[in-house]
Amino acid sequence: MKSIAILLLAGMSVFAQGQNAPKSALDKATLEAYLRYSELWIPQVAVKIDDPKPSAVSGFMDVAIHLTFNGATKDEMYYVSKDGKSIVKGTAYDIAKSPFQANLDQIKTDQQPSFGAAAWAPVTLVIFSDFQCPYCQKEAQELRKNIPAAFNDKVRVYFMDFPLTQIHAWAMKASIAGRCLYRSGQDAFWEYHDWAYQSQKEITPESFDTKLQDYAKQKGLDALQLGRCMDDKTAAADVEKAMAQGHALQVSATPTLFLNGRKLEGGVEWPILQQLLQIEIDHKAAEAKLAAAVPVPAKADDSCCTVDIPTLVGKKK
């Protein structure tokens, strides 16, 4: 009986310690309540708070917050002090790296349709787009016309699917069709890309399949094979992978462009985008000139016999 009493007392002691233990520095319920009030999120907005991650900002943690409302999603990043008492919303910069390094680290362009300069061009323009979006149509047509004419040897453009399925009924199907045609090569995808945007006003959710089959016949494509691909989950998975990347980059509108990592939301008029592209080209040229002027340290073992030529920038994936 004495042993049982001791065990009971020990259990009560552990329970009491648990009750009196300090809460985690990051209390998600408190953070959500505070942000709902400060950001005016209505009750119908679902909020999911990720566990904190180490931050580049000294003394803070990175906390990603995911918002959902009527099928639409949006991601926000906050910096929370390690004691959980201070919140910062914004972007943290490391002056030794690109101010858009966080975006660059997340953008993966391998196996994505592209056109323009070589894959290691000094300027990369990544566009998250929706085939049913009228603003995307205008942006796409301007890029297809002007990039090759003005920056063919300097700018590489990558297309990323981001169909807004909650408001555009046939956008997902259009993206899947694009991924199917991309399997036949870049030219097949871009011909479809241009056709889809040119035909945007004529397409409806009910007519998309018929118009796609008509397009396939017009181009001499195997309509049966295309239909099978449309039903293949692999093509849909490719689209969803691009969408997931967009969500990670906090894309919430189309078109959204990333110019060497710089985020540009909504349609950008060509005269403005042209200036931004030239600024980026000039900036890269200045970086290269500075890098070339930095003396290369001599190697202790073979410095007398080796000539090192500094390179401008490494190849991008």
Give the total of domains: 2
Number of strands: 10
Task: Please name the fourth-level CATH homologous superfamily of the largest domain.
Answer: Glutaredoxin
Distance between the termini: 71 Å
Strand content: 15-25%
Order of helices and strands: HHEEEEEHEEHEHHHHHEEH
Helical proportion, percent range:
40-55%
**Radius of gyration, taken over Cα atoms and rounded to an integer in Å:** 26 Å
CATH architecture of the largest domain: 3-Layer(aba) Sandwich
CATH class of the largest domain: Alpha Beta
Determine the number of helices (DSSP H or I, runs of at least 4 residues): 10
Gross geometry: globular
Structural class computed from helices and strand pairing: alpha+beta
The major sheet is characterized as: 5 strands, antiparallel
Uncertain regions spanning at least 5 consecutive residues = 1-24, 302-317
Question: Which topology of the largest domain does CATH recognise?
Answer: Glutaredoxin
Report mean pLDDT, rounded to a whole number: 85
Describe this structure in words.
The protein has 317 residues and is an alpha+beta fold. It folds into 2 domains: 23-89; 101-277, Glutaredoxin (3-Layer(aba) Sandwich), CATH 3.40.30. The chain has 10 helices and 10 strands. The protein has helices at residues 2-20, 28-39, 101-106, 134-151, 171-182, 186-198, 208-218, 223-231, 233-248, 270-293, and strands at residues 46-49, 53-54, 60-69, 72-81, 87-89, 114-116, 123-129, 155-161, 256-259, 262-265. Strands 1, 2, 3, 4 and 5 form a 5-stranded antiparallel β-sheet that branches. β7 (123-129), α4 (134-151) and β8 (155-161) form a beta-alpha-beta unit. The longest helix is centred in the C-terminal third of the chain and has 24 residues, at 270-293. The radius of gyration is 26 Å and the shape is globular. The protein starts with a helix and ends in a 24-residue tail after the last helix.
